[in-house]
C-alpha cells in the first residue's frame, strides 16, 4: 500500500479505500475460511459425533466422522469449483457483461451473509448437515467473487500501477489467512462453545462492503470498452485516482476496444482445440496441479492435525500456525512492494526446488517437532515468494488477449478440483501414512521444478508473441521436425 501511495496519487482519490473495501469482501474472505476451519477442527468433529447420535441414534464410527469432516473441508472447494464456472456462465454473463463488476461483488457479499446465517444456526439446531450446506455456499462465493475481485481491480487501475494493484488481491488473501489463525486462538474465539461464531466473523466485512461499495464507481475500463461512455470513464478514474485528464489511459482503452471489435474472445473449447496452445495448456495443468498437491493446502487447512502428528503440544499449535500466517503476509507484502517479476524462470525453479526439501519430518526425539516447524516456515516463505504468484498470473503471461478469458477459466479448474480431491483424501492419508504422506508431496514438487526448468520458457522482458513463439518451438521426442532438438526451449 505504501508503494502504491509513492507510485501514484492515491491520496488524491478514493482508490486506497476502494482497494481495502474490495479486498475485505473479496480474497480476504477466501483466506479466512481456508485457515479458520483448522483451529476448531476437534470441536467440529466432536459436534458431528453428537449430532449424528442425536439424529440417527448410535455412535458413528471413527471412519464415518473422518469422512464427514473431510466433506466439510472438501465441500468448500467443491463449491468454489461450481462458483468459478458459474461465474463464467449465468452470473458472469448477467452481472459482468450486462451489468457491472460492482453488482457482482455485491451479489457475492449477500450470498456470503446468507451462508453465514446457516453456519451460525447449525450449532443451536444441532445439525452437522447445515455446516455442509454453509461450507458449500461459502466456497461458491469464493469461486464467484475471486474472479470478479481481480477483474475489478485490473479494470479500475491506470496502466502504470495495474500490476501492483492486482497483486493486492494476494495480500488480502494472506491477511485473511492470518486473521483466521489469529481469531482461532483460544484467547479469542478458539473455544468449543464459540466455534460457530469464529466461522461467522467474515460476514462483518461483507456487510461493510455492502454498505460502502455502492458509493464507488464501476470499473472505468468496463465503462468505456463495453458501454462506450468516455466521459463517465474519465469521471470514474478521477473519482478513484484524483484529478487529471487520463488521456493515455483512455487512449489505451480505445485501442483495446478496437482490437476486441475485430476479434471476439475465444471460448474454452476453442482454447482446448487449438493445437498451437498445447504446451501452454499443459503448463497451466502442471503448475496449478502440482502447487495444489505440493502440501500447501495441507499446511493451510489441516495445520492442527499436522503439528499434532509432529509432536507439537496441543496448547502451542495455534500459536505456531499464527506465526506461519504472519510469515505469509510478510512475504506477500514484500513481493508487492518490490514489484518482483514472479515469472522469472530461474527464480521459480529455485523456489520449487527448495520447497521440495522443506516438508515435515517424521515424529522422533524432542528436536524433531521444532525442526518440523522450521521446515514448514521455510516452505511457506519460499512458496509465497515464488510459485504462489504464478497461479493467478500465468494465464496473463503466456496467452494472447483473445484467449485470456478462456485461459482464466481453465486455470481455476485444476486449482479448485485439486483442492476438492485433496480435502477428501488428506485426513485418510495422514491417518494411515502419518508424516510419510509428505514424501508424496515432495515428489510432486520435484516434478514441478523439473518441468519449470526444462520446459517453461523464460518470459521476463518478452512480448506475448515472442513467448508464444517459444512455446511453439518446443518439440517432444519423436518429432517429425528433424532440425529441432528434443524438448528445445530457450533457458
TrEMBL record:
GO biological process: D-glucose import; dehydroascorbic acid transport; fructose import across plasma membrane
Gene Ontology cellular-component annotations: sarcolemma
Membrane spanning residue stretches: 12-32, 67-86, 106-122, 128-152, 194-216, 281-308, 367-385, 406-430, 436-456
Organism domain of life: Eukaryota
Domain named Major facilitator superfamily (MFS) profile: residues: 19-460
The family this protein is said to belong to: Belongs to the major facilitator superfamily. Sugar transporter (TC 2.A.1.1) family. Glucose transporter subfamily.
UniProt-recorded name of the protein: Solute carrier family 2, facilitated glucose transporter member 5
Organism: Cyprinus carpio carpio
Biological classification of the source: Eukaryota, Metazoa, Chordata, Craniata, Vertebrata
Amino acid at each position: 500500500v505504501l508503494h502504491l501511495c509513492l507510485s501514484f496519487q492515491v491520496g488524491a482519490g478514493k482508490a486506497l479505500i476502494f482497494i481495502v473495501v474490495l479486498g475485505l469482501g473479496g480474497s480476504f474472505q477466501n483466506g479466512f475460511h481456508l485457515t479458520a476451519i483448522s483451529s476448531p477442527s476437534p470441536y467440529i468433529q466432536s459436534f458431528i459425533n453428537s449430532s449424528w447420535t442425536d439424529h440417527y441414534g448410535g455412535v458413528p464410527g471413527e471412519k464415518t466422522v473422518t469422512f464427514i469432516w473431510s466433506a466439510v473441508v472438501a465441500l468448500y472447494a467443491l463449491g468454489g469449483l461450481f462458483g468459478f464456472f458459474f461465474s463464467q456462465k449465468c452470473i458472469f454473463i448477467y452481472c459482468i457483461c450486462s451489468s457491472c463488476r460492482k453488482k457482482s461483488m455485491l451479489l457475492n457479499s449477500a450470498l456470503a451473509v446468507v451462508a453465514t446465517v446457516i453456519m451460525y444456526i447449525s450449532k443451536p439446531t444441532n445439525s452437522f448437515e447445515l455446516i455442509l450446506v454453509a461450507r458449500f455456499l461459502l466456497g461458491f462465493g469464493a469461486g464467484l467473487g475471486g474472479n470478479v475481485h481481480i477483474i475489478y481491480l485490473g479494470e479500475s487501475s491506470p496502466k502504470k500501477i495495474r500490476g501492483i494493484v492486482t497483486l493486492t488481491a494476494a495480500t488480502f488473501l494472506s491477511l485473511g489467512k492470518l486473521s483466521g489463525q489469529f481469531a482461532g486462538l483460544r484467547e479469542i474465539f478458539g473455544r468449543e462453545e464459540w466455534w460457530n461464531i469464529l466461522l461467522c466473523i467474515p460476514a462483518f466485512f461483507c456487510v461493510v462492503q455492502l454498505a460502502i461499495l455502492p458509493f464507488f464507481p464501476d470499473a472505468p475500463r468496463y465503462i468505456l470498452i463495453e458501454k462506450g461512455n468516455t466521459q463517465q470513464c474519465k469521471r470514474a478514474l478521477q473519482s478513484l485516482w484524483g484529478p487529471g485528464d487520463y488521456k493515455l489511459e483512455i487512449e489505451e482503452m480505445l485501442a483495446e476496444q478496437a482490437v476486441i471489435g475485430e476479434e471476439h474472445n475465444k471460448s474454452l473449447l476453442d482454447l482446448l482445440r487449438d493445437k498451437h496452445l498445447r504446451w501452454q495448456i499443459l503448463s497451466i495443468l502442471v503448475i496449478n496441479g502440482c502447487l495444489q498437491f505440493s502440501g500447501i493446502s495441507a499446511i493451510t487447512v489441516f495445520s492442527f492435525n499436522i503439528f499434532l502428528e509432529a509432536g507439537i503440544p496441543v496448547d502451542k499449535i495455534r500459536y505456531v500456525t499464527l506465526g506461519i500466517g504472519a510469515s505469509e503476509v510478510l512475504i506477500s507484502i514484500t513481493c508487492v512492494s518490490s514489484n518482483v517479476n514472479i515469472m522469472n524462470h530461474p527464480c521459480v525453479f529455485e523456489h520449487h526446488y527448495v520447497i521440495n526439501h522443506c516438508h515435515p519430518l517424521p515424529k522422533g526425539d524432542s528436536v524433531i517437532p521444532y525442526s518440523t516447524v522450521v521446515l514448514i516456515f521455510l516452505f511457506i516463505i519460499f512458496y509465497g515468494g515464488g510459485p504462489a504468484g504464478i497461479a493467478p498470473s500465468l494465464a496473463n503471461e503466456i496467452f494472447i488477449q483473445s484467449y485470456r478469458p478462456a485461459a482464466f477459466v481453465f486455470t481455476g479448474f485444476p486449482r479448485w478440483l485439486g483442492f476438492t480431491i485433496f480435502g477428501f483424501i488428506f485426513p485418510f492419508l495422514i491417518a494411515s501414512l502419518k508424516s510419510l504422506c509428505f514424501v508424496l508431496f515432495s515428489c510432486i514438487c520435484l516434478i514441478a521444478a523439473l518441468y519449470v526448468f526444462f520446459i517453461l520458457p523464460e518470459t521476463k522482458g518478452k512480448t506475448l508473441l515472442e513467448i508464444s513463439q517459444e512455446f511453439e518451438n518446443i518439440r517432444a521426442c519423436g518429432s517429425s521436425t528433424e532440425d529441432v532438438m528434443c524438448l528445445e526451449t530457450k533457458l
